[in-house]
Amino acid sequence: MHRIAVVVVPPATTFDLSIPELVFGATSVDGAPGYEVRICAARPGAVATGGSLAITVPHGLEAVDGADTVIVTGTSAREDIDPRVLTALRRAAADGRRIASICTGAFVLARAGLLDGRRATTYWAKSAEFSRRFPSVELHPDVLYVQDGNLFSSAGLSAGIDLCLHLVRLDYGAATANAVARLVVAAPVRPGGQAQFIETPVPAETGTSLAGTRSWALERLHEPLDRAGLAAHARISVRTLTRRFHAETGLSPLQWLLHQRVIRAQELLETTGLPMDRVAHFSGLATTDSLRRHLSRHTGLTPSAYRAAFTRRLA
């Protein structure tokens, strides 16, 4: 079982703290839990939060030493971070453990020196402060999450769910990650490069949302869909489609289609024994060369290596 230590740095952001328990606790592989999650702090017990809720943390930082993944959740702390937390994070990094932050937890990773010269992100409203404090970090303030080697960081609040689902996908594959997304009623795994905030995250109740067209497209990924076809289904112009698509998803129609097709290919590789040309066909990537190119770009693995890796993990 993959072990995760969630490090709480007071004053803690309670929403961020709930995300790892929610996502990883819902992960099941062949009926068995996929993760063991331990919430820890430099001082176990009652921990201050940024609001009126009171929380109790059961474990000390010894949980970090036994973890495969260490996640620091959001905090209002800047200068007064317990040095024991920074030491534990540096030790975990030196041991090659996977380390992640949610929201302003990136300030803690940066304070530990783990992000120097590395790519990272944080909550967009705190990006100016972050860049001022840590100019040596290559901050990407307009994306959902960033992966730089074994270091991961996410934007604020719900982007933490996207990051945790991404980690599930890395550990157990796209099919499991999307099953978890359905269980926690979250969006399917979204690409990290998607914008943190979009023009109309909650469309007005005027019937102008393209959700119906996206659902229609997901049922036809194996067909040669293009912007004209999507626009025809939505009964709008291609120009209007492109504008609304970006407003609702942060992606262009073709970017969204490609992302969904790669995810479909991953699921087929994980859950079926279909030959590669049929995986390419049913995912809408058309040819085995196209399947290999796009899957390698997104995962770093060839289709055969991806199937072998996740078949072995799930066996």
From TrEMBL:
It comes from the Bacteria. Residues 211-309 form the HTH araC/xylS-type domain. Pfam families: DJ-1_PfpI, HTH_18. Keywords: Transcription, Transcription regulation. GO terms for molecular function: DNA-binding transcription factor activity; sequence-specific DNA binding. InterPro entries: Class_I_gatase-like, DJ-1/PfpI, Homeodomain-like_sf, HTH_AraC, INH-QAR. Gene3D superfamilies: 3.40.50.880, Homeodomain-like. Coiled coil: none annotated. PANTHER family: ARAC-FAMILY TRANSCRIPTIONAL REGULATOR, HTH-TYPE TRANSCRIPTIONAL REGULATOR RV1931C. This is AraC family transcriptional regulator. It comes from Streptomyces venezuelae.
